[in-house]
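WARN no homologs supplied; continuing
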Amino acid sequence: TEDANRFAAELAAMDLDLIVAQALPYALLVRDANPHMPMVIGTGAGLVCNGFGRTMQRPGGIVTGMEELPPGLTARRLGLLTIAAPGVRRVGLLATTPASCGYEIQLADAQEAA
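OK structure emitted
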């Protein structure tokens, strides 16, 4: 929203040592406003594919956080579903972050597991 953009820009312009962003959408706004601001991201999907780190094992850089959808998690969830409900043949995937590349991770895992 417009307010979130404005608040992120205000924070990023302050003389802060660090910003803690609750979730990926806020982290993206802060990075857009100041790509040199050190940041902790509470949780987010697709931190690597959104450019916050080089790899999960060795992210490097000035950002850290918790990846909520590591590769393989969606496949494991589908595996548990087939154990809990063996008659299930069709499953829909509804993701909340299609614009932040976390969706692609989920979709690839689901397709591979299927």
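DSSP finds four helices and three strands in the chain.
OK
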